[in-house]
Amino acid sequence: MNALTVLASGEEEFVAPGVELFDFPPLFAGGPAWLTKPVLFAVIGALVTCAIAWSAFAKPKLVPRGMQNIGEMGYVFVRDQIGRPFLGKNTEQWMPLLMSLFLLIWVWNIFAVIPVVQFPIASHIAFPAVLAFSVYFLKIYLGIKHQGAAKYFSNLIPKGLPKPIYVLLVPIEYLSTFILAPFTHAVRLFANMFAGHIILAFFSLVGFWFLFEKPTAAGFGVGIIGVIMTCVMTAFEMFIQFLQAFLFTMLAAMYIQSGLHADH
């Protein structure tokens, strides 16, 4: 809320928050430009993910309790809803990666509604881009390893079509596979977190502005609406945070499977 207050305090008229919400100075004067709040909490999110996994699975008991019980519920969800539908018999082999991706992205996303942090890490494109391209390089590596380089690249093109169609189909297929797919994989997560953060900031600022910064009888109702919408959109955003972690991990499983076995 402090950041929103600063945006509002110097203005006589309400100004909606914009992309300045995503600009962060270095953590300390003279520090490197890259060492910002999102970077710090990206690392903290990774450590939180490790801590959750360690507490849940480091010393498993025959009858799960506490964190192990929660961890196993999460494991079963990722395995049954993401891993098995795409990877089948290969699921268990890739569960450490899928579970880590799902949990890390969810932790990063949910930081948006955690007091003090109040920022979704994935709303900075660099973080989902690193994850997406890592998954995609893994896909290509697996494809070449399991299918052979020539067969892997040829399997990307459907067989049995009239030859003139391949003049258009080949560049489109390769563009989609090697450029658009990893790009959209990263941007889908980034865009949802980016837009969600701006929406939450907007309604929060509406409530703060009309109820505290510039309270008026006419604006009181608008401020109340802002507060109500902030609560509603926070709940909705928490659902989206979970959904985007699920979708990103699901696509990762799909890409891994396409590397292990030919798409066509």
TrEMBL record:
Q: Which parts pass through the membrane?
A: 39-58, 94-119, 125-144, 165-183, 189-211, 218-236
Keyword Isomerase assigned to the entry: answer is: no
Under the heading Gene3D superfamilies, the entry gives:
ATP synthase, F0 complex, subunit A
The record's subcellular location field reads:
Cell membrane; Membrane
Pfam families named among the record's database cross-references: ATP-synt_A (PF00119)
Output the SUPFAM superfamilies linked to this UniProt entry: F1F0 ATP synthase subunit A (SSF81336)
Q: Does the keyword GTP-binding apply?
A: no
Listed GO molecular functions? proton-transporting ATP synthase activity, rotational mechanism
Q: Topology versus the membrane, per the UniProt entry?
A: Multi-pass membrane protein
InterPro entries reported in the protein's UniProt record: ATP_synth_F0_asu, ATP_synth_F0_asu_AS, ATP_synth_F0_asu_bact/mt, F0_ATP_A_sf
Q: Where is the signal peptide?
A: none
Provide the alphabetized UniProt keywords.
ATP synthesis, Cell membrane, CF(0), Hydrogen ion transport, Ion transport, Membrane, Transmembrane, Transmembrane helix, Transport
Per the record, its GO cellular-component terms are:
plasma membrane; proton-transporting ATP synthase complex
HAMAP family from the UniProt entry: ATP_synth_a_bact
Which family would the database say this protein is a member of?
Belongs to the ATPase A chain family.
Q: What does this protein do?
A: Key component of the proton channel; it plays a direct role in the translocation of protons across the membrane.
What is the recorded name of this protein? ATP synthase subunit a
- Which organism was this protein described from? Actinomadura rubrisoli
